[in-house]
Structures are given as structure tokens and as C-alpha cells.
Amino acid sequence: MVKNWILKEEGDSKIVGELASQLNIDYTLANLLVQRGITTVNDAKKFFRPDLKNLHDPFLMKDMDKAVDRLNKAVKNREKILIYGDYDVDGTTAVSLLYTFLKKFDPTLEIDFYIPDRYSEGYGISIQSIDFAYENHFTLVIALDCGIKANEQVAYAKTKGIDFIIGDHHRSDDVLPDAVAVLDSKRDDDTYPYKDLAGCGVAFKLAQAFAKKNKIPSDELYNYLDLVVVSIASDIVPITGENRILAYYGLRLINSKPRPGLEAILDSANVKRRPKALYNINKSIFSKELTINDLVFIIGPRINAAGRLENGKTSVELLNSDSLEDAKVIAKKINDINKERRNLDNIATMEALDMLSKDITTLNKKTTVVYNPKWFKGVVGIVASRLTEIYYRPTIVFTKSVEDESSDETILTGSARSVKNFDIYEAIDACSEYLEHFGGHTFAAGLSLKEENFEKFKEKFERVVSERVTEDTLTPEITVDTEIDLNEINPKFYKTLKMFAPFGPGNNSPVFCSNGVTDTGLVRKVGSNHLKLSVCHPNKNGYPISAIAFQQGEYFDQIAGGLPFNIVYNIEENEWNNKISLQLNIKDIKMLE
Predict the structure, then answer these.
(1) Which residues constitute the domain of residue 82?
(2) Is residue 491 part of a domain?
(3) Stretch 325-330: mean pLDDT
(4) Residue 391 domain-assigned (yes or no)
(5) Closest by alpha carbon to 250, among 35, 237, 141, 180?
(6) Can you tell me the distance from the alpha carbon of 493 to that of 27, in angstroms, rounded to the nearest whole number?
(7) Residue 550: which region, alpha, beta or left (left: phi > 0; alpha: psi -120 to 50)?
(8) CATH code where residue 234 lies
(9) Of 446, 468, 490, which marks where a domain is finished?
(10) Among 264, 301, 389, 570, which residue's Cβ finds the most Cβ atoms within 10 Å?
(11) 540 and 393: one domain?
């Protein structure tokens, strides 16, 4: 697939030069800072050295005072408290955080947690859960990572004498649920300084506010940041501002002393953490640590797996575990579930691709919408992501959810994924007359509809997207931070580059471009369709540098023939034989004629 390379505008040369001089760093690295809005030494110090003291006062969030007062009342009066959360990583980490925090504050509290069943209850606050709370005498429910649209459910709970505190981070409707407190910085009337907290981040702010009110030392709160960073990584929220501080210290905690549940997940995934590794270019010593990507691809999917195929309660039990041995038993079970999940999503993806290949109308459409009643509800989001990568257009994957026997109506549930610069939530909202429920973000959403409305929704969704999307939007882009000479890349350069981490949305790992490079004659095919190279600028002094280009084997003959080419890439570390060396991870290649 052809990709557009979009080169970012360079920073003001005077500001970049002054910053490079004051910080004693490479001009290219100073330019990366300026491109991120960091233009002074003070800004750079805050960026390179995130400080927990710069976290915002939690009471700046709308309704936080009401939430803490109601929670304190429940604690004082010995009420039964139920912590409720979504079944995904963000929800289960949020529940684990608040549950374990309150249990540590007062082990005698009558407190429990509730994770809805994806299949029988669906997303959000269910009527079934409120009935459970009533029957078991819970008078306060704290809903995390969900509830911002649960007007009907919260009203029903009030008739049962149950109060709700909602802590969410999704978009709200015009009318909020009639809860004691609604914590969501995306509320139109909320002036909280940071708008991109994950659901677990909102749970942390509630815990932070409760700690402040009850004079609990701040240091005790920081033991929960490993859960917060897992949610930040897995929910793909921006790693900027407050999230960057939380993620930075959360990663430090995971790399130094992860809680037993996370340690057990790493063990079940055969991840061996080494505190130090030898860097073979100049024998400098660097730490080898888990990164945001490791959380996204190793820890997150395993926590998610239980909620996708069984019940997310298992994941909370794992995260709450005090014993490593007990945690390993649960982690093994979850790891087995994750293997089953991978098999199911692979099958569903292949079936979806086969379905699309047989539909000739697919080629000219601006959307991808597919439905199969046999697909597992827990994997349709993964399938949607894969189809988006392949076809690169707004995508929704549906499966059958539940049947309403009283009306003989079948309900379909779908998961939506978008492409860069297109708001799929707004497109779905424009088709809301055919929907039962929907919610989500700019790039991902969930929805449900009656089967009889599927074709009508599909047609209108295609029409809405066609009217709003452009051809440029439907062409994959690689945003390039700056062009550099390969000879600039050395251990000192990379050591400073690592300080830009943690990487993620809003602070992506820098993408570089180098033009007119050649291979030194060592290019070879590896795996199914990958290239292993050794690249350099011809006729320039400097050492060649190793590179890997995944799924780009079609360029082998031209590169092996000595033709020059342009590359865009990230710089990373590659471990081999207990040694770590620099490597280019090539994202795209353009041959020069």
C-alpha cells in the first residue's frame, strides 16, 4: 500500500540553536523538542524529568468534592460500597486501584467489586448489576470507566436507595446521569486542566482527593501507578501533560517492583527482565526496561483476555493478588484464555477478509462494515483494527449480541475503528436513529442495533463517511519528524533520544528520514517477507548501521542490486546474544530511479 510521507515543519532555527547550546545536545534533538512545543530550558527540564509534584489538584475536577464527601460518609457510616468497572484493561485496572486503595485505608470496610459480563450484560452499567447491589445491601456504587450515559440505570438505582459516583472519561450527552457526583473532565462544564485521563486515571484522581481529605501521605498513592500506566498504554490515550507524569513513574514502578499480578503476567509470557545489558558499540552500560509498547502488546492483551472470553472479574482478582504464587495460578489461566482469544480473532479476521474479497462492491466503498453472528463479541474490536490496517478506511465489525425472546428481535453489537484525521464517533452519531446504544472516542467506538436496522445503518454510514472523508484521509500517512544523516546516529544521540520516552500518542517515538542510502551488500530475507539490512550513505564516512524492514521483502532484488533508496524509520535497540546494539526499524522504503 502506497503511503504518504508528511515531513513536519522544522522548529525556528534560532530557538532550536539556543536550546541545543543551553542543553548541550545535538541540533536535531533540540529541534524535536521545539516541534513538541518545548522551547525553553525550564520546559525541557520538566519534559525530561517528570515530577509528581506537578500533578494537578484533584479537587479542580468538577464534582470531586461531592464524590469525596459521599465516600467519606459511606466509610463513616459503615455502608457497603461496590466498585463497578468495565471489563477491559482500563476498567479492570481502575477497579483494582480503588478497591485495593480503600481496603488498605480500612481493611474492615465492607467493599466489593463488580465487573459486568460482556455477553449477558454488555458494556456499561447494567440493570442486573443494580439488582445485585440492592439484593446484597450496597448503598453506594462507584462506577469507573463507564456510566457517563447511564441516565436510566442511575435513575433506577435511586428508586432502590442506591447512590452512584461516576468516574468516566468518555464523551457525555447533554443531560448527565442524576448521580451524587459525575467525574469526567470531558464534561462541557468541567475546567479541569487536563482532558485526556484514562478511566484508571480518573480512579487515581478520586483516590488522590480522598487521600488529601483524609491526610493520607501522597507517597502511598504512588504504589498504584503501575495500574495507571497499564491503563494509559492499553487505552491509547495521549501520553502528554499529566498522563506523561503518571506513565513515567508507573513504568519505573513496573520495572523496579511490579505488583504480584503484573509480575505473574510477565512470567507467564516468558518475559525475562534484565536490569543491565551491554551496549556493544562502545561498551557503555544501559538499562533494558519494559516500555509502553511492552504494556500494549504483552500485559494489556492478557488482562483483556478474561473479559473478552470469560469474565473480567478474573483480571481484577489477578491484579489484587498479594501472593506471587497465587497470582501465577491466575496468570496461567489468563494466558491460556489469551491463546484461545488469539485463535478466535485470527479465524474471524480470515473469515472477514474472505467475505470482503467476494464482495466486488467493497472496492469502491469508503467504509468497511461486516457482520457474522458466529464471531465472538470479545474479538470484534481486534478484527476491526486489523481490517482498518489492511483496507485503511473507517471500519465496523458486528456480531450477534443477545436475543430479546419477548420480541423476537436480534441485537447486534459492533466495534468501530477509524483512520487518521477522521472522527468515527461523529459519523456514528449521525446514524444514531438506527442504533440502540453507542459511545466511544474519535478513533474507536462501540455500538449496538437491531438486526432489522443493520442494512439501513450500513447504507447511511457509508453515505455519511463518503460525504465527510477525503482521499488524502484514506491514504495512510507516515509523519516524519525530521531528515537526518545516518552518521548522526551514535550512542550519545540515542541516549538523549531515550529521554523523550515514554512514547505514545501525543509524544510518538521520533520518525526520521534518510535519503539516498544503500545497502552494504548484506541484505537478506528473513521470516516470511522481512528484510535485514546494513545501510549507509554512499561516499560518506561513517559506519553502516543495521536495519530491519518488516513486510517489505518485495524490495529485495532492487536493494541487493545496489540501487539507492529513501527510508523512514525509528531508532531502537536490538538484543542479540545478550548484547544490545542500535538498529533502524524501517517503516517504509521508496526506491530511487
Answers:
(1) 58-254
(2) yes
(3) 96
(4) yes
(5) 237
(6) 10
(7) beta
(8) 3.90.1640.30
(9) 468
(10) 264
(11) no
